[in-house]
Amino acid sequence: MQRLKVVVLALMAVCALGALASSMAFGADAEFLPTASEAYTGTSGPATLSTLAGKEIACKKDTSSGTLSGRTATIHIDLSECKGEGGLVTCTGLGEASGVILALASGLLVYDSLSPLGVGFLITLTPIHASCSIVLVELTGKVICLITPINTAAKHPEIKCEMATPTSGDPKETVYWEGGVLKILSNAEVLLTSFNHGAAECSGMLTVELLLTTNNITIDG
Q: What three-state secondary structure class fits 12?
């Protein structure tokens, strides 16, 4: 019962608690099978970044690429047609074409707390720098997204990133299991966005990314 209380409190206080950990058996970690590296490409429809303060950057689509291997992935995403301030200004990454923001990241398969039989994809961003007109934007941190299907051979895994509500800026998922240990992303680890070098704001991401591999892979949960 005490362990259940820890999880419930964590879910009710996203962006308000520091990191917690509690030993809890959860079986072996999920991984991509076969474990040899598999290249992928990907696409998404709209992708939205929102902060708790109500600021938003929305991109109409993206293309992605990288490799899947064991529990890990490399991630390269080109977000296109990106806008801020309610669509009034164009947002552009450092050194990129107008409206394009490059995101580099690493991915790690973990178990997701909101769906005990589901697999989460813990994404760690390389810091992203962009400008929305005269506003400088920096995005750092981690986000947990669900990845499906699991235990089924497929060439098209889907990664779904959600917020507590579609416009809240509050990440839906901050709790996960790795190596049988329950972990919670701390305030310093979640997605954080700063504007003009100001205080970082807790942020959430809303998007669905469809990956395509040459060979069938199984996400072993």
A: helix
pTM comes to 0.87
> E strands along the chain, which residues?
21-23, 31-33, 38-44, 47-51, 56-69, 72-84, 89-93, 101-112, 119-132, 135-148, 158-161, 175-178, 181-184, 192-195, 201-213, 218-220
| C-alpha 197 chain-centroid distance | 23
DSSP-derived letter for residue 119 is E
**Ramachandran region, residue 168 (left: φ > 0; alpha: ψ -120 to 50; beta: rest):** alpha
Instruction: With CA atoms as reference, report the closest residue to 163 among 56, 89, 62.
Output: 56
* Residue closest to 210 by CA, chosen among 49, 61, 50: 61
SS3 assignment, position 28:
coil
Reading the chain (221 residues) residue by residue, the pLDDT tens digits are: 333 333 434 444 456 444 343 334 445 789 999 988 999 999 999 999 999 999 999 999 999 999 999 999 999 999 999 999 999 999 999 999 999 999 999 999 999 855 556 899 999 999 999 999 999 999 999 999 999 999 999 999 999 999 998 878 899 999 999 888 899 999 999 999 999 999 999 999 999 999 999 999 999 98
DSSP at 96: P
